[in-house]
Amino acid sequence: MRPADHPHIPMPKIGVLLINLGTPDAPTAPAVRRYLAEFLSDRRVVEIPPIAWQPILRGIVLNTRPKKSAHAYGLVWTEHGSPLARYTKAKAEKLAGAFGRDVVVDWAMRYGSPSIADRLGAMKAAGCERILLAPMYPQYCAATTATANDKAFELLSRMRWQPAIRTLPPYHDDPAYIDALKASIEQQLAALPFEPQLILASFHGMPQRTLELGDPYHCHCQKTARLLQEALDRPLEISFQSRFGRAKWLEPATDKVLEALPGRGVERVAVVAPGFSVDCLETLEELAIRGRESFLGAGGKDFAYLECLNDSDEGMTLLRTLLARELAGWVPPS
């Protein structure tokens, strides 16, 4: 029998923590500045030694970029906040009860709120003795997947009673992922008032140096694009967006490709962003707004941005499949 003064111990549970990149708390310069200060101070994101990078970050970047970025966020902000937070939260909410009553599904951001520390702490307090960390990145990259896991492991290192941990591996070539993309894209293409001559698959860019150092991200993106083209049986090209700074980045660059397509005779294009699990600033502002302007300004006639999987039926089916696979042995088969 438990002594009367014994501390309360909740019933054992299993946790699933969906982790996405992050977002400012508001589309304002101060909020963006706080977010960028955390994001761009991550050694996984900017690998320049801090003694050289921090003066540039504090003296130039954080005094010039927040206002411009805040304007961009304002163009895509919703009544529910940023699209990235809205859809990541919706995914977690739709997974409630999907794996049984003893599995808690929550969400967190690597940078910003809700933090990984906050939600891992809540899971531990709720009795989660086993936790699956699920970074929402199909293609593995040290600057995304690894840093999300790093943060969680850093917190675990300070826990006396650690939960058992699993991590969701990349799923860039998983048939369930390719099938979900195919179904979503075909559904959206069928609703267009025009027939695209080309589908452009735009992935988030990374410095060329990351490939040379052994990061598999570029290869993962190329394989996703190849498998998606085969599944769709349509002309498809790959590009990389969101360059930052003066270093050489993965090519071809999305904005340059869109500007060049009309000169190649491609006047009708559909753009997809398979590397993003949910829509965000980079897809809704950089692609759907600025990408459209670049393409039409160069002489294109018809442009469409096709939404990410988000919390669609296809997206949720994929996520349930991936998570159920990683929970095997912890959760009885349904």
Can you give a write-up of this model?
The strands form two sheets. A four-stranded parallel sheet has the order 2-1-3-4, with helices on both faces. It has a four-stranded parallel sheet with strand order 6-5-7-8, sandwiched between helices. It is 45% helix and 16% strand. The protein has two domains: 13-170, Rossmann fold (3-Layer(aba) Sandwich), CATH 3.40.50; 175-305, Rossmann fold. It is α/β, with parallel strands linked by helices and 334 residues long. The chain has helices at residues 29-39, 50-76, 83-94, 116-125, 142-156, 175-190, 208-212, 217-232, 254-260, 281-284, 286-297, 313-326, and strands spanning 13-22, 103-111, 128-135, 164-167, 198-204, 236-241, 268-272, 302-305.
